[in-house]
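Researcher: Here's my situation. A collaborator sent me these components and asked whether they could plausibly form a single complex. I don't have experimental data yet, so a predicted model of the whole assembly would be a useful starting point for our discussion.
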Amino acid sequence: MKYFVQMPSAGVAGEAASFLTESRGPQAVARPRTQPDLLIAELDDHDIVVLQDQGAKLWEDVQFAPLPPLEDLGGARVADYALSREDNVPLVDQASLDDVLAHIKAPEAWAYSRGGGATIAIVDTGICASLSQFSSPSPVDLPSAFRGQHWTDVKGHGSMCAVIAAGNKSAGGRFDGVAPDATVISARTTLMSTDLFLIFDELIDLKRQGAIAGPLVISNSYGLYTCTAPAGLPGDHPYLEVVLTAIDEGAFVVFAAGNNHYDVLCNNDPAAASPNTIWGVNSHDRVMSVGTVNRNNSNRDGSTPHANSSRGPGQWASDFPKPDCVAPTYGVVAWGCGYRFMDWWGTSGACPQVAGLGALILARNPRLRPHEVAEIIRRSCVPLQAPRECVGAGLIDCLAAVQLA
Amino acid sequence: MSFLVRFASAGAKAAFLEKLGEAAPALLDRVRASRSQAEVVTITESSAEEDELIRTLLDDQATTYGDVQMRTF
């Protein structure tokens, strides 16, 4: 993907250009004459990390497109088309986040709660701030590697998760998320355990100080891609401890189960319920671990990528086998500063649905403790005809869950 | 590299930070004491030389955890 890259000085930009020319060839890098500290370059994830270490600011390339006549959009808003970047996704006759929310009965739950007063921290790649999509974006600036840059998302993933959890059409977004009135904290991270530790540590402190006034939900759509028990993350690791401390402080913590089972990584039989591929903190009894299913409520059909949804019971789980539940992912969804169609959104896209549901529940009944929220969600799930290691308690049902709160 | 260190006590942590401040004061900018866990600190982006210094200053009761890279799902 191509980026604008602004370096701290012209000299550093020259060094960066040399580095990129050497690794990717002279055609991959351009240096504008009018802005000597700027590069335009094709970058991969490794390049981005290297350049950001040198103080780079990055902006993803944008694909502009002419506005078509209204009738070509079949009634879709012109603004929607204008906001479509990178992929010119057809905006009609395709499933989208709207359909996924109907699938889990989120709109029906809004008669009881829309998440107002609750806060959802999206621990991820950042959130694009150039579009107003949230009713209440938080100004909290966490002390991670991206202090001061949390509302930037050069990858796109974090924006997807944030809109799924708490997008708001009234604020200017194309989609409502599960909890459209919730406050959103962007916690942009390198996804290194030290950086994650600092983010959780600060969220705990903000909660203790009352700077986060109402209920707090923490959404974590990341983890370890591995087919066997991971080295380097022992059960006494401070990262686990700080996650558990956040739960002690009342935060409802949700993790993606992982995408390890089928052809993304481990190449297990897509119909099989084993072996376990949910690891580390994502598998702990006290966190909510979320798998994903397709529009037919299945993750055992190799014809859709949902068969990659990691299988339980979870490396560290004992009382509450993982996954706890599943949520569907398919269709057009936010990505970075625009929208795109994807066959699935990974368990990454399922996790923020449960984070949003946690916000709905806690907004309705702020006295609930995290384990009570988890129990309500599990108890209200629609059971599915699949082994528990694949789908947990079943498909989340926002309406039933909020009615139990 | 970056790592997390858990000390046997808050006092042991304070003693380490004092020694580190004397030996490499610039490194203190990259040390952050946990607010939620009194005996834990994170140290980020230390050089190989600094890593060696840190290991020298840590006593046997401190537990050091290497950093773990996770990825989005």
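Model: Some features of this prediction you could bring to your collaborator: Chain B is about 35% helix and 25% strand. The CA atoms of residues 10 and 37 of chain B lie 9 Å apart.
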